UniProtKB/TrEMBL annotation, chain A:
Compartments where found: Cell membrane
Cited Pfam families: BPD_transp_1 (PF00528)
PROSITE patterns: ABC_TM1
InterPro entries, per database record: MetI-like, MetI-like_sf
Protein name per its UniProtKB record: Riboflavin transport system permease protein RibX
From TrEMBL, chain B:
GO molecular function, one term: ATP hydrolysis activity
Name of the coding gene: cmpD_3
Source superkingdom: Bacteria
Lineage: Bacteria, Pseudomonadati, Pseudomonadota, Alphaproteobacteria, Hyphomicrobiales
Protein name per Swiss-Prot or TrEMBL: Bicarbonate transport ATP-binding protein CmpD
Protein family membership: Belongs to the ABC transporter superfamily.
InterPro entries, per database record: AAA+_ATPase, ABC_transporter-like_ATP-bd, ABC_transporter-like_CS, ABC_transporter_ATP-bind, P-loop_NTPase
Keywords on record: ATP-binding, Nucleotide-binding, Transport
Gene3D superfamilies registered for this protein in UniProt: P-loop containing nucleotide triphosphate hydrolases
Domain ABC transporter span(s) in chain numbering: 7-236
Length: 249, 263
């Protein structure tokens, strides 16, 4: 409670200093808008309803990309963990695919899928893939040899061992990867829109930049940050719920 | 080899891939139904490997492992295995851990739950069935592991130093639990340990293993049932001393300790 109060006081102090600095005339409002101007712009966007379609598009891209990236990362992690030979063959390719800057793929993805939702969803999915893949692979490898032997002794086949032993053991590590993926999904969706979006919060930033509306840009930052924090907290709640069932102890 | 052997090992040999020497170098052993045999040896003498061969977790390079005359080709539910560590699943309650051998095959029936509860209750864990392993003491975890191995009512129990990590008093309680449960169910047991007193207290017969071979095998000349106080009697101490002498005379796998040698 005390720390929360301290956080809030710090925010108020920073905003006050920022406002005072802008009002002193030391900096042009084109370069740095005052917090009051940002708040007014944000309220205008919300009240007029202009914000909602963009928010909806970004959230849609984020969720679709996150789901696709999570499913692929989890699936690939399980596949490569169960077949180590396949892992050795494919590992360099997986690594290379992650080292390519995903945004550099943007122009190519636009050529393939056109402008709009799809290229951004693909970029988001590619970004979300890696944390899920890595953490699934790591988590599945953490099963104790003794427990694996126990499952052999009890006559459990590969699928049973995966579902009843390996995945529950790996779950906390996989969920940690999912939390990372959520944060990256927002980055993927917004920055993906920079490259190929017509709608969405990222596309709105580019549009605001072209008319030099810096207070709208900062207002959109605020919306994006709030969205990220809300989704992150939701993920943490979901994680706590799942881990209560599968927690160690 | 007696004809009525329940578990019969016959000239069993095993070498781990890449190892220069055989870990198990030709062992014959027979356990009749309901008998408790102990296998004694220093760390690294091959006793755990022999146990895994008996369980079907490893396949021998030569020789045969038979249960009731049928060659063992892999793990089977009529054989229970208790590992060195309790190997409980952290996300399951004590009851669900005991039910694991059944729940891996099919949905547990009320009768299965009843049996698991009875087993836990018979080991004094009747009130702790819903606890997760992290909320149980080491001794309680070992009891849950033993109950899990007994749930399918195996005719043979293989135990790999299951009580080695416990304090002396808890270990003695668990030894009594084991003797009681084996006697009431007619379960045979092969119990691997490095603790001479444990082997003498539990075993009808005790074998001493060194460098992959059985260097001694003999009956324990003590009456059954054995009251816990028997550990402090002269006859018990004499049996322990003679086994210690055999172990000291056996070829060791590493440098033998210079101090603490029994006469």
């Amino acid at each position: 409670m005390r720390t929360r109060l301290a956080s809030a006081l710090l925010l108020a102090a920073l905003l006050t200093a920022w406002e005072a600095w802008c009002r002193s005339g030391a900096v042009s409002p084109l370069v740095l808008p005052a917090p009051s101007a940002v708040a007014a712009t944000l309220w205008g966007e919300v009240a007029s309803g202009r914000l909602w379609p963009h928010l909806r598009v970004t959230v849609t891209e984020m969720v679709l990309g996150l789901l696709a990236g999570t499913a692929l990362g989890l699936g690939a992690g399980i596949l490569l963990s169960e077949w180590p030979a396949l892992h050795r063959v494919l590992r360099p390719y997986v690594l290379a695919s992650q080292l390519v800057p995903k945004l550099a793929l943007g122009p190519l993805l636009i050529l393939w899928f056109g402008f709009g939702l799809t290229p951004t969803v693909v970029i988001t999915a590619l970004i979300c893939f890696f944390p899920l893949f890595e953490n699934t692979l790591t988590g599945l490898g953490q099963v104790e040899p003794g427990q694996r032997e126990l499952f052999r002794m009890l006559g459990a086949g590969r699928t049973r061992t995966l579902l009843r032993l390996k995945l529950p053991t790996a779950l906390p590590v996989i969920l940690a990867g999912f939390r990372v993926a959520i944060v990256l999904a927002l980055v993927g969706a917004v920055v993906g829109e920079f490259v190929g979006g017509r709608q969405g919060l990222g596309a709105s930033i580019i549009a605001a930049q072209s008319v030099m509306d810096s207070s709208l840009i900062v207002a959109l930052f605020v919306v994006i940050t709030a969205l990220g924090m809300a989704v992150y907290e939701a993920a943490r709640g979901l994680e706590a719920l799942i881990l209560r069932r599968y927690a160690r102890g | 080899m007696p004809i009525d052997a329940h578990l019969a090992l016959d000239g069993v040999r095993y070498r781990f891939p890449g190892d220069p020497a055989e870990t198990v170098a030709g062992v014959d052993w027979a356990i009749p139904r309901g008998a408790i045999h102990c296998l004694l040896g220093r760390s690294g003498c091959g006793k755990t490997t022999l146990l895994k061969l008996a369980a079907g977790l490893l396949a021998p390079d030569a020789g045969t492992v038979r249960i009731d005359g049928t060659p063992v080709s892999g793990p089977r539910l009529s054989v229970g295995f208790v590992f060195q560590a309790p190997t409980l699943l952290a996300w399951l309650s004590a009851l669900d851990n005991v039910l694991l051998p059944v729940s891996l095959k099919r949905r547990p029936q009320p009768s299965d739950r009843e049996a698991a509860r009875d087993l836990l209750a018979s080991m004094g864990l009747g009130d702790l069935t819903e606890r997760r392993p992290a909320a149980l003491s080491g001794g309680q975890q070992s009891r849950v592991a033993m109950a899990r191995a007994l749930l399918t009512e195996p005719s043979l129990l293989l135990l790999d130093e299951p009580f080695a990590a416990l304090d002396a008093l808890t270990r003695e309680e668990l030894q009594d639990d084991l003797l009681r449960l084996c006697a009431s169910r007619g379960t045979a047991a092969l119990f691997v340990t490095h603790d001479i007193a444990e082997a003498v207290y539990l075993g009808d017969r005790v074998g001493v293993m060194a460098a992959g071979r059985l260097v001694h095998e003999g009956a324990i000349p003590l009456p059954r049932p054995r009251p816990p106080g028997i550990r402090y009697e002269a006859a018990f101490g004499a049996v322990c001393r003679s086994l210690r002498a055999i172990m000291d005379g056996a070829p060791s796998n590493g440098p033998s300790p210079a101090i603490g040698r029994a006469a």
